[in-house]
Amino acid sequence: MSLDGAAGTFLREQVGPAGPWRPQPAHALMPSRLTAQDLAPLAAIVGESHVQVDDAARLAATGGASYLDWARHRAGDRSDAPDAVIRPGSAEEVVAILAAAQDRRIRVVPIGGGTSVVGGLREDRPHVALVLDRLGVLLTVDEVSHLAVVGPAATGPRLEPLLAARGLTLGHIPQSWARASIGGYVATRSAGQASTGYGRIDDMVEALTVATPMGLLRLGRGPSSAAGPDLRSLFIGSEGALGVITDVTLRVRPLPTQRRYEAVVFPSFAAGVAAFRSIAQGRVTADVMRLSDEAETRTTLALSGPRGAASAALGRYLRARGVDVTQASLAILGWEGTDGAYVVDRRRATWRLLKDHGAVALGRRAGESWRRGRLDGPYLRDALMDAGYLVETLETAIDWRSYLDLHENVTRAIEDSLVSAYVMSHLSHVYETGASLYTTIIAVADQADPVAQWRLAKNAAMEVIVDSGATVTHHHGVGRDHASWLVNEWGALGLKVLASAKQVVDPHGVLSPGVLLPEDRP
Amino acid sequence: MSLDGAAGTFLREQVGPAGPWRPQPAHALMPSRLTAQDLAPLAAIVGESHVQVDDAARLAATGGASYLDWARHRAGDRSDAPDAVIRPGSAEEVVAILAAAQDRRIRVVPIGGGTSVVGGLREDRPHVALVLDRLGVLLTVDEVSHLAVVGPAATGPRLEPLLAARGLTLGHIPQSWARASIGGYVATRSAGQASTGYGRIDDMVEALTVATPMGLLRLGRGPSSAAGPDLRSLFIGSEGALGVITDVTLRVRPLPTQRRYEAVVFPSFAAGVAAFRSIAQGRVTADVMRLSDEAETRTTLALSGPRGAASAALGRYLRARGVDVTQASLAILGWEGTDGAYVVDRRRATWRLLKDHGAVALGRRAGESWRRGRLDGPYLRDALMDAGYLVETLETAIDWRSYLDLHENVTRAIEDSLVSAYVMSHLSHVYETGASLYTTIIAVADQADPVAQWRLAKNAAMEVIVDSGATVTHHHGVGRDHASWLVNEWGALGLKVLASAKQVVDPHGVLSPGVLLPEDRP
């Protein structure tokens, strides 16, 4: 996406002019810090050809897609490249690799799509990257139970066509869909754009196999259990620090034959939030529910909305229905299914509640347009950085009662911590008791010290989030960037419980050290 | 309920005649094995009046509602009575009690309603019962977020009227509703009779506070989180072995204003299972979905169905619609909500699928009749034991593909392990990927050694369950009776993880030892 034309004008007006931010040539990789004695036992397990130490392989296995990662890479810094890349061919080989790595105290960072936005893959000490692309995509399908056993080589684009051939879909569509792996979804408790209808990834996991230095765990029997604590939940979201997910049994759904996406405008974000709450609590949710605040709505209209006379006509259309376009809050609603009549029923029930909150229909074209463009965000981010802008997102979730206060306080904290920031948010997952809040920040980048600038804004936002009782992260995970706040989520005793679990499966701490659980580093 | 008339005749015909099983007078309680030195520090925390050692208090705090518990008690055996009863007045007092108990290595068994059917409260070594009825019922309500903070003194009958006064309901209705505590629901991962629509209790928990000998844990922020593993799931289902739940933040729902329950008959259990599967996978579920197999259907018709001419008329009505009454499978479906039109829509969508599987409507009267009688089971059990019958239930869950095989194999294994057993089952919770199976067993009791007779049947059923990949328990928990099978659910490494969590919060193992995690007892 280019920043010429409307987008460039909008940015200069709203954020201010910025100088281009030119990527520096990548520094030469430092030679692999692993010795022949380190690598020989690994090669004995997977075969020589599946242990790579050349620059190309190491760079290809360097992950991370956070603003901090991109800023580092833009400066030419590749110190987070692994010292070797290992590609095991089976779950048993993964266990053997982990045990061998433990013997020699070699750090192991499992990597899927490399799309962590929270520093989950950022490691500059000697380590191997465990790449799982030989372990299969779709291993088995149970078409009666609607269960698919999926391997760690699966990504959305690889998996969905195989499922579609059987009339099924996973329906998990995060913005990282093009690259993220299914194992990564599970390891980070991912939520996709249709998660209101399809559920978070944690809702889809019936069973999983986890390889650890101490052996394999096979967790999950049947659709649900009361056999004590749910140990699956300790490994879902474990971000590579408690093991390597070698397969996942996922609930899949019939591929929808009916689909209706439409756009709606509310007179204010508060009205939209009230409508979404009533829909969630009335249990008449659409499968996709997304509500932009006033700032995000203005951006959307400026960048992709109608122009000129059409824009004026939209303003008149809304005004006639009691909506001031400058205060408007844009929503996308999508219903999917195989029973056309029931899709219609569900939409009608949703609309009964939408109308109570002053919703004005914008029709299917705008809805479909959002659906087609919904994976473009990451590409836009690169263009914004090229143009000299800091662009970062953060997300959380909170109960309905505190939702608007949190939105206001997070927005203000970020605006106060940055010079001339443009802050815009949306709500993209509703629960009966609350909803997610996803905030995008654009500011003129401090190219001299982007990390310090980022940290200031991040700390300001996190302080508000933690103080308000919201979750540290709703769907991006902990990584390194949130590790210091994990104690706010689970408490010191909770972290001890988590650390004790790690101690059992990874007693020497070779698995993604510093990720998830904070580490005392000298 | 009396076993005269139709019920008695049915039992004698189907199971065989049995002699009455007379309860023996309760043995005298052994004197409390706790010393004044044991009790003084506890009394210093909660006050003298909240430490009771008299027989009446100890007997009232003796729990357990399994067949084994009832058979023991029927023999006069009260060796599982606690040595003292402690009633703390706050969460902080609970922590202090647990720490003091740890200091003196006194076993602590938290007790809610005392309705464990898996030996979760059966302890014959010296111990104190921790009774939580001073800790409040409904602590706070957030009517915007639909969240209620509930104390451990809450039971269904205490909580629901308080919620109803605000137009809300929890909607969790297990058969133990009259007595079970909400903390007990959470500690055992309970599922109620409307769990298809309202969710299992684990689906309702947004946050919980857990007191342990090492301090308080406060787990859960916001409606959902990706902040690493979900530690709530380690304490939901922890059955008193990892801590004492001192409050729970639960999602509540609007009290339904519309309610429609109806009965349906399928030509066979297999047809009903296929229908229920298509409904679950079509995501058009009713809130209550219950399907009896042929044996349970015959029992229901014999005990509470129409008699004489009316019964013959029912046979003709079904036959005219292609259903042989002797092969019939009875289902109950219930829809609830606040939007009448949407309740109608949902019912219509369900019926489109029901018809594909040969369902015949029996109307609302039979549905309402089930709803009114749905909590009677436990009372019937006492009457059956009085009449000399073993009566036991077991439950599991499995994927749809294996459902009918499991049903057949469990039924046969139990029939083969007992002389002339009557075995009947139902399905009462559907998931997209599978369903629960709940089996009731009636046989002539071996009054001389009911434990040995029970163990034979239990082992036979559990072997089938474990071998088929089904869960050890879908909604009754582990207790002592399932503890030896927990390794089949989570594996040896999984149990080590669980034991390490216990080690952190209860390093001296004073909390419900032997419950959940098997114990090496000398």
Report on the architecture of this protein.
2 copies of one chain form a homodimer. Chain A has 522 residues and is α+β, with helices and mostly antiparallel strands. In chain A, 39% of the residues lie in helices and 20% in strands. In chain A, the strands form 4 sheets. In chain A, strands 15-12-14-13-17-18-16 form a 7-stranded antiparallel beta sheet, sandwiched between helices. A 5-stranded antiparallel beta sheet of chain A has the order 5-6-10-8-9. In chain A, strands 1-2-4-3 form a 4-stranded mixed beta sheet. The radius of gyration of chain A is 23 Å and the shape is globular. The mean pLDDT of chain A is 95. The interface between A and B is large, with 98 and 98 residues.
Which class of secondary structure composition applies to the elements of chain A? Answer: alpha+beta
Inertia-based shape of chain A = globular
Please give the largest β-sheet of chain A.
Answer: 7 strands, antiparallel
Classify the oligomer.
homodimer
